[in-house]
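Posting for a labmate who doesn't have an account.
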Amino acid sequence: MRLQLLVRAAGALMLAASAAACSAAGDHTDTYGPQNVLYRADYPSYTTADQLFERASVVVQGRVESAKKVVRLVQAAPQGRALPAAVDAERREGMVVTVRTVTVSRVFKGDVKPGDVVQVKQLGGKLDGVTYSEEHGVPLLDNGQYTLFLETYSDQPASLLNPVQAQYPVDAGNGLLSLPGNEITTSVTQLARLAHK
């Protein structure tokens, strides 16, 4: 199996991209359309809301603005370490991400305050006529209210700790809804308690 590029995408450990342009004999190719690329990333998995809260550098509730931008994020080469040619080629090509703006209404953890905006990136988006998707990814919805568990960086937008476990849509009664496939339940009350530990 071909070596895969280590990336920083919400704590993602490994990333592989499968594109229609790759040959059928490629090492990790799954073709599903002429202008589509499928990203596969491994994320840490959590068993409790306490674990999510502890691991996150920022936990906020807020509204996802409708404006978004799709960019190619190129990773810097690790200092003092040579990468195998195939891995370095993937690093230089970069990965396509969609960057969303979240207007914060409540802060449970982190160096932000209500009214601030947080930039959040997710793998995938449409760029130069090609659609990039993340396997098992769940895009944030325009104008959606969410509680998000984020990892922040000094040089790029924040990422969800896990594409399914780290986003909770907020219902009309301010309840936090777990996405399908996420067995972790939490509430505003529980997060407030964790914030004051």
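Reply:
Got it, the structure tokens are right above this. Helices lie at 49-55, 85-93, 188-195.
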